[in-house]
Amino acid sequence: MKNAQRNWKTTVMGILTLALLAFNVYKNPSALSDPAQQVQLGAGAAAGIGLIVAKDADQTGTADQPKQ
Residue 1 and residue 51: Cα distance in Å, rounded? Predict the structure, then answer.
């Protein structure tokens, strides 16, 4: 969860990716039974989840230490 809060821009893009995926399934429920569409839906879901749990390249992934 810390990664999601620290990298809010990446997390927002992941959430938007999953929301668009859900909207496309809502518009066309038959896509869930089409094997060609299932591959695209799976790739979209993996991309959205990957963006949510990803760390930014310029971040170490550790919490900032307070300076004394």
Answer: 13
Q: What is the pLDDT of residue 27?
A: 93
Q: Are the CB atoms for 31 and 25 separated by under 8 Å? A: yes
Per-residue 3-state assignment (H helix, E strand, C coil) for the chain: CHHHHHCHHHHHHHHHHHHHHHHHHHHCHHHHCCHHHHHHHHHHHHHHHHHHHCCCCCCCCCCCCCCC
| Number of other CB atoms surrounding residue 14 within 10 Å | 20
Count the neighbouring beta carbons within 10 Å of the beta carbon of residue 63. Answer: 8
Q: What does the block give as tokens for 20?
A: 């668009």
| Token pair for 68 | 């004394």
pLDDT value, residue 19: 95
Rounded CA gap, 40 and 53, in Å?
Answer: 20
